[in-house]
Structures are given as C-alpha cells and as structure tokens.
C-alpha cells in the first residue's frame, strides 16, 4: 500500500474538505463545547449561542461521520442522546484552543482596525 501525499494546495486533494470541516466556526465552537465531556443536544445548543437547530444537527452529523464525535443513544423514554469527542476529536482540541486563544488575545487590535476602515 502506498502512502498518498496529501496536499491541500492541490485543487483535487480531499484534505481540503478536512480543512473546511475543522476551520468551520461551528466545528471550532462545538469541539470547544465538548471539552467538558459528553453533552446533550440541548446543552450544546445553549452553549453555542446563535447556532440553529439545523446547523447544529448538520455539524454534529459531519463531525460524527468524520470520526471526531460519537453519538450515543440511551434506551430510555424519552430517548437520551449524548455527543462526545473521540480520541481524534480530542486531538483537535489543542490546535483549535490555540486558535481561539489567539482570536481573543488579538480581538482588540482587529476590532480597532475594523473601526478605522469603517470610518475611512
């Protein structure tokens, strides 16, 4: 079996779709929200302000399909469903947390530039 040289700078490389997935704002926020352990759908909706039910569902399905999240259904009435990061998902937390920390640390500067541009 040969190793495929993944190159996201190539138009046809599947790694571009992976970058799209992990660079998506909802993915970034949901991976962060799942940092504390398993969460129910409603708890995630509350934690990630502004996400619609449709977008939350789509993003969780994509994260599950790509192996970042597991979905566990408990046989209760009504059924209880929890989402949890897999080991792959947990490995994504470090770089995403760094991105989040960078955004928070530099937001004042970015905000000031945006205000300057708006008044120019």
Which descriptors apply to this entry?
3 strands; mainly alpha; single chain; 120 residues
Q: Summed up, what is this model?
A:
This protein is mostly helical. Helix content is 59%, strand content 12%.
What does it look like?
β2 and β3 form a beta hairpin. Strands 1-3-2 form a 3-stranded antiparallel sheet. The chain has helices at 15-23, 25-33, 41-47, 53-65, 87-119; strands at residues 39-40, 69-74, 80-85. By secondary structure, the protein is mainly alpha-helical. The termini are far apart. The model has no long low-confidence stretch (mean pLDDT 92). The protein is globular and about 60 Å long. The longest helix is centred in the C-terminal third of the chain and has 33 residues, at 87-119.
Helix/strand/pairing category: mainly alpha
Distance linking N and C termini: 58 Å
Shape label: globular
- Mean pLDDT comes to 92
The secondary-structure element order is HHEHHEEH
Major sheet, described briefly?
Answer: 3 strands, antiparallel
Which helices and strands occur, and which strands form pairs?
Layout: H1 15-23, H2 25-33, E1 39-40, H3 41-47, H4 53-65, E2 69-74, E3 80-85, H5 87-119
Antiparallel strand pairs: 1-3, 2-3
């Amino acid at each position: 079996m040969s190793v495929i040289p993944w190159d996201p700078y190539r138009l046809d490389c599947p790694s571009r779709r992976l970058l799209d997935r992990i660079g998506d704002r909802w993915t970034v926020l949901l991976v962060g929200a799942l940092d504390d352990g398993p969460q129910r759908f409603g708890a995630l909706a509350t934690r990630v302000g502004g996400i619609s039910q449709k977008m939350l569902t789509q993003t969780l399905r994509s994260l599950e399909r790509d192996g970042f999240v597991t979905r566990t259904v408990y046989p209760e009435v009504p059924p209880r469903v929890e989402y949890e990061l897999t080991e792959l998902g947990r490995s994504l937390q470090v770089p995403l947390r760094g991105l989040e920390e960078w955004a928070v640390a530099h937001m004042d500067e970015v905000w000031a530039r945006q205000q300057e541009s708006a008044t120019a």
